[in-house]
Every structure is written in structure tokens, then in C-alpha cells.
## 1
Amino acid sequence: MKRAIYPGSFDPVTFGHEDMILRSAAIVDELYVAVLNNSSKNPLFSVDERVSMLRELTRDIPNVVVTSFDGLLIDYMKEIDANIIVRGLRAVTDFEYELQIAEINRVESPTVETIFLTASPNLSYLSSSIVREFALYGGDISKLVPEQFVERIYAKYDIKKRGAKN
Ligand code: ADP
């Protein structure tokens, strides 16, 4: 049984993440898409919101499970009995950081393998931070995220803008 984990912030989920999920679910038996509950970041969406968006998105993929975790990834992997980490590589800028993380995980847990999928060329420019930046200034994000999330993302900024004025 090849159980893999695709960890990330998914704040918000993009077409890039969707592409990674579809591609990796096709090569492993079971894929855990796991939202990292990173208390040091100030997220746009709560962990619960991100988990439910990912569940909506992956509803029809039978071998995908969406969860969240905090603490060390390798500890969580022991809990769910997974030994493959899936990460995406968009550009050289991703490489250095990803290599470091993969190495430290290997040192800490030698049975864990990290596999990298290179970004699909038409999505290699896409990141959650680009989506947030675009949405903040009212840019068109319909080509960046699945349709059902577009309004939810704009709504976050409306709420924040109104909040700032009051
Ligand atoms: P993190 O904070 O862990 O980087 P992200 O949600 O930004 O969380 O990314 C999760 C994973 O998805 C990372 O491995 C990242 O490289 C990958 N990823 C994000 N966007 C894309 C994309 N457009 N194409 C391929 N992989 C992507």
C-alpha cells in the first residue's frame, strides 16, 4: 500500500494544487492532502476553511483524504502510516528550500522518501501568494483558482477592507 502525503498551506487552493493532487493521486494508492496548521503565519483562510475547500475539490477522487496537522510532518506521517511526501517544483527558487527539507526529513526518518513533481508548464507561475496579491487589488483570479472559490476569496478581502475602515 503506497500511502503518500501532499502537505502544504493551500491558502487558498489553486489550479496548481489541483493539478498536483490529480497527478499524484494517479501514482499512489492513497493520497493524504494535509493542511499545515502553522501558527506563526497569519492565514487568509482558517485551517477548517482550507480543509473544507480541499474536500469540495477532491470529492470525486476516491483515493484522496483531506486532513490537517500541526507539528512535524514526519511525526504526523508516522501517525497515519505514510512514507512518501509529494512536493511540487515550480522554478529553481523552489529547489533549494525543498532540497533542504527533503534532506532533513531523510535524516530524521530514513524510510521516508520525498518525490517531486515538476509543475505543469501552464501553471508554473502560479502560487497562493500570487492569488492573494491579485485578489487584494481586485484582479481577475478566475484563471488561477477553481470557480467555486473565487467569490469566497474576494469576500475575505471585502470583510478585511470593511473591517479596516470601521
Ligand atoms: P507551502 O507553504 O508548504 O509551500 P503551498 O500551499 O504554497 O504550501 O504549496 C504546497 C505544495 O504545492 C508545494 O510543494 C508547492 O511547491 C506546490 N505547488 C504550489 N503551487 C504549485 C503549482 N502551481 N504547480 C506545482 N506545484 C505547486
Note: Confidence is low (pLDDT under 50) at residues 161-166.
## 2
Amino acid sequence: MAKELKYADKASQELFNHSRKEQVPIVWDRYADMQPHCGFGELGICCRICSMGPCRIDPFGEGPQVGVCGANADTIAARNLIRMIAGGAAAHSDHGRDIAHTLLLTATKSEFDYKIKDTDKLKAVAGIYGINTEGKDPKEIARELAEKALTEFGQYKGYVKMTETAPAARVKLWKDLNILPRSIDREIVEIMHRTHIGVDAEYKNLISQGLRAAIGDGWGGSMIATELSDILFNRPLIQSSQANLGVLKEDHVNLIVHGHEPVLSDILAMVAMDEKMIAKAREKGAKGIVIGGICCTANEILMRHGIPIAGSFLQQELAIATGAVDAMVVDVQCLMPGLAYASSCFHTKLITTSPKGKMPDVQHIEFKEEKALEIARQILEITIDNYSARDKKKVFIPQHTEDLVAGFSTESVFDFLGGKYRATYRPLNDAVISGRLRGAAGVIGCSNPNIDYEYGHIEMVKELIKNDVLVVTTGCNAISCAKHGLMKPEAAFKLAGKGLQEVCAAVGIPPVIHLGSCVDNSRILRVLANVVAEGGLGEDISDLPVAGAAPEWMSEKAVSIGFYFVASGVYTMIGHSLPVKGSPNLYKYLTEDIEKEVGGKWAFEPDPIKAAHMMLDHIDKKRKLLKLKPVMYEQSYKPAK
Ligand code: SF4
Ligand code: MSK
């Protein structure tokens, strides 16, 4: 049994202890029960791809060094790793496909619950796809765009179009290395083909296909998800809100939306504000309706509607342990099957909604875009009806929330740092060039019970901003930063270095900028491309004084994200290592030699302060190569001579 959470936000700590009292097993308990983890799995050198195995390589060199088919540790570890990329890229890209499908329905149906909300963005994205928008009805443009985007998943010729928004030098490099993705699905399928028994046995060749599929995720499937979501649901709006489980209310109906795709959560957010629904909740004795998000659904409805965040990945069962959640609605990705047991300990109705994500013995209400409003109302009515079943004696809502400012996008970072009248990234580039900012970092990703919850995220981010590195964030790191007060503009004055403080004060931003959900890491790619295009910081992303990190990663999506950042030229740090340590050749390739090919590389360091220092070293190295001035102000971090 896990004993305690030492670092996490107060609400999580209190609910962790409360879950013991209520005897609800949660993720940390199952993690403790699972110890020790399988060493072969951790090293990446077990293989069960065919039934001559399963095989495993003896890491001590005494037992077998090849599998029954003759595959060695390099082949086995590389095959396993790129299958992780396939899983992650498939998840993001299938999300993108669903959004494109919703856009197509919106464009072609006369009666439909979704509308095109951002026609400027529609025209801008249509422009990337070469669609003539002159004098055309937005629905016609949307139809053409949705069809082109959907075609890209399985097209048999050409390349994924949005890769062209990367800097020209990067696109050329991808072409030269033959890793420009041809279609989104094709690269994922090719991973599965190459890793079948008896196909690709050369580890660098395997990784090259992994890079191609990952680029197809970041600059393809994920970018489609982000851009088309903005068209349908609006671009994020900069606004204040709150985060943490204290946003639930004892005297309100509480509905949690959890997962990733905004198609259902966006409509639920609207329905929850419907006067008729609120009146119905009052009839049941509640004072109103609270809707709160978990995981990336939280980020989607926060940035467009200002709806408070309830929690991150590791808080999903803790939310139920409050005893105050009348229903939890889930769609896809990062949903723990353990939710079913946790909700059976309380009155909470757990409802799955995607045909892709059911759970045994859990109520399933299939979501269909054609009946979006009707289904959203049905779900909300179930939630309201269940309020009466709540056992008041079991309710325990820790009263902890934190204020935040969120809702930034590639375009609004543009407005803020460039000024609305000078549509330019110039002030951001100038702040870096002058040394007021040391550089920038994207710190993103999940949480994992293999590290004290939030210690990795928060300590790393604090160390970076203290040393004048502007941090952009997405996913569950964003939620942790919000809960720890790092997204309040005043956080800059308490925690940031002097140069970053000056930038934050000049433009009124927090030192940590929330750019959205996991698929919105594509917004970070776009910011990087825009900074290169602005000029003065090199010709390619790999020239920039930037770094990326996922200190508490856990999902295959994080692996795909990491690979598309490496492929884009970014130094990418993660906490615990990728499962490649059983192959010293592959380990060395990913952490050293790959940089010569793509300009980015991996680094693994579980200590978040040490990891931040390695990122600072990298940023300084890039500053030196660009011959930039020294950083303007004294920094707490002194690089080793
Ligand atoms: Fe063993 Fe080779 Fe089959 Fe893998 S593919 S299980 S290493 S025989
Ligand atoms: S939800 S992938 S735990 S960031 Fe996007 Fe959080 Fe990681 Fe899921």
C-alpha cells in the first residue's frame, strides 16, 4: 500500500488519506502492489511479437543474447519503442480524424448542433491546404477543408500538408532524411508492418520510421485536432478561472467530464448553463450545477469556456472519493479502468460515451454528433437525478482551489507578446536576443505514481522560470502548474528571475503559459516555427535556445510527442528513461548520435532540478552558437565551467 503523498497539492493529499478511510483502492495502491516491476520490460528487452517466444535478452550477458528468431537487444528494444509511438500517434490522430468528421457534418448538414465558430481560423487553415476561400460560404470552405484533412489520413500520394508550416530548413531536412510523413495512418501501419516478426531488424532504420510516424502525429493528426477544434469550438480565450477538486460544491450537482475530445464536453458545458437544467437541479434540492474537467477535457473546456479544472490524470479516482460526484462522463484516453471500482464505492454514475472506450459493467451512452444536444441533456438529467442518491455522510470535498489565467494560443501569445497593432513575435525574439529571457521551455505531460506526485513537474518549472526561461505547458503538467499557483500573473514576482519578471509585467502574462491539451502540443510546434520565421534566432527550430520536457510522463502519447519534438530539432528531457536501457546502442543513439541527424535528442533524468539544469545547459549552448549576448541578469544557476 502506498503510504502518503508528500509533495502534491493539499486537496490530493487530503483525499489520498480519505480514500484510506473509505477503503477505496486507488492508483498509488495498485502501483505499490505491482512492485517490483518486470526488469525486462523496463529495459525494453522482452519480446512477444510472435509465438516462438515470448523471448527475453539476459542483460547480464550470461543467458540468451538473441530471441528464437535471432533478434538482438537493439532490434527488440527499437521495435517495442516504435510500437509505443504507433500507439501514441494513433490516439492523437484518431482524435484529429473525429474532429475533422465533426467539421464535415457541420458543413454538410442543415440541422446540426455544432456551428462554425471561427471563420478567420477556417480561412487561415484552408489557406494552408491551398483551398481558394474568395467569395465562398464558410460551410463550403469547411466542407473542402474537412475532406482534405480526412483524405490525409490514408492518402496514397503526396505528404502531410501541415508539415509545410515548419521552417523551410526543417522540411528540407525531413525530405533529405526521408522522414517526411506521406499520410498519417500509413506511417502508423508501416510501424506495425516493420515490427512484425522477420521484417526490419536494423534499429536505426526502425527509429527512422518512428520519427516519420511521430512527425505525422505532431505536424499532422494532432495539428488537425487543434486547428479544426478552434474552428468548431472557437480559439482559446484568455481568461481567469480556478483549479483543483475544491471547485466541486457540496450543495450543487457535480458532473465531471474526463478524457480528451471536446465534441461532447463542449456541448455539455453549454447544456449545464441552460436555465431549464439549473431549475431541474433546484427541484432536486441542489443550488445549481457544477461541471469540472479532468485530464485534457479539463483543458479543452477551461480554455474555451473558463470552466474550472477539477484535476489531472492522477486525481481521477480522488475526484470520486469526494463522494460528491454525481456522474463522471468519459470518452477516450487516460481513463483508468479502476474508476469503475472507485465509483462502485459511492453513488457516482460512471458513464462511457465512446464506442472505442467501454468498461465492463459500466453504463454506456453512445455519443453521436447528430444527436449531440439530446445526448448531452440525457447525461445531465441522469446526473441531476443522481444527486438525491448522494450519501451526505460520505461527502468530503477538500476546500483547496487556486486561481489561474489560461486560454493562450499560438495566435494570442502572438497578440500578447507582439502587441495587437504589430502582429509579430518580435518582442519575444528581442527579449531572448537581448538576454532578458534566457530562452523558453515546453514542460508538458502526464503524472505517474513512480514519482512523488507533482514533484517532477513543479520543481522543474520553478527552476526554469527562476532562471529566466519562459515556460509553455499543456496536458497534465499545465493542471499541476495551475494547482500550484504558477499560472497567476503574480507568480512571476514571487518565483521568476528578473528578466522574466520584466517580460511578464510588460505584457501581463504569467511566467507559465497554458497552451491547452495534449493534442495542443502542436501549438508549441507552431510557436517555435513562428519564432524562427520572425528572424534573429537562426534558420531552424534546432537553432533556438529552447528545450522540452515531460518530467512525469507515462503514456504512449508522451513517447510520440517526445519523438516529434526530437524530430523537430528540440532537446527533449523526460524523467524516467524510455524502455531502452537494455540496448546500449539504442540508448546512445537516442541520447547522443541522433542529434547529428535531426538536431534534437533525448535526455533522461529523474531528478527535476538536475534535469532543469541540463535543459539550461542546452539553452546556453544554443545561445552561444547564435552568438547572443550573455543573459542580462544574475541567474541562480551557474553552469559548470
Ligand atoms: Fe522471440 Fe523473435 Fe518472436 Fe520476438 S519475434 S517473440 S524475439 S522469436
Ligand atoms: S491527459 S496523456 S495523462 S498529459 Fe492528455 Fe494527462 Fe498524459 Fe493523459
Note: The CA atoms of residues 151 and 284 lie 48 Å apart.
